Amino acid sequence: MNFFILNAERSMRRIIIFYVGLSFVLMSIGCSRTVIREGTHPPVDVPGENTGVRWNSASIVDDAIADKIAIKSISTERSPTQTLVINVVIMNRTDYNQQVECRTQFFNADKIPCEKPSAWKRVYLPANSIETYTESSMKTTEVAFFYVEIREGR
């Protein structure tokens, strides 16, 4: 009879050890964190020719619309008062109307901001169409470069 009692104790001990080990494994899995980095750009500056600011360009900074719109062309001209005027043609590639917001930052020849970023301007894009975002600098001949950001309308 002692044999059966010893076997039962061993079995019970094994079961307890198994459940204690399993609970530690499950707790360690549950406590581990996954850091989710949102956005289109990494949070650090990675050196290289494809990681810096692409001067005189427009960038879609919102992943939610990256597949829905396209930048068809970018052109610049000087106004009669010598301000820099930027035109960005944006194409809606979907079958429904969309809204995007655009803003521009102007830089001098040393690539230092020479004025504050413009306010976000809303651009309405009818289904399967194109629209043009236009922005003018406030300063005249100091402006040498620009950078346009495009995000989903909020």
The biggest beta sheet is recorded as: 4 strands, mixed
Shape: elongated
Order of helices and strands: HEEEEEEE
Structural class, please? Answer: alpha+beta
Count helical runs: 1
Mean pLDDT: 83
In total, how many beta strands? 7
Radius of gyration, in angstroms, nearest whole number: 29 Å
Fold topology:
Layout: H1 2-31, E1 57-60, E2 69-78, E3 84-92, E4 98-107, E5 121-125, E6 130-136, E7 145-152
Parallel strand pairs: 1-7
Antiparallel strand pairs: 2-3, 3-6, 4-5, 4-7
How would you describe this protein?
With 154 residues, the chain is of the alpha+beta class. The chain has a domain at 57-152: Immunoglobulin-like, CATH 2.60.40.3230. Helices cover 19% and strands 34% of the residues. The protein contains one helix and seven strands. The model has no long low-confidence stretch (mean pLDDT 83).
State the main characteristics.
three-stranded antiparallel β-sheet; single chain; Immunoglobulin-like; elongated; four-stranded mixed β-sheet; alpha+beta; 154 residues
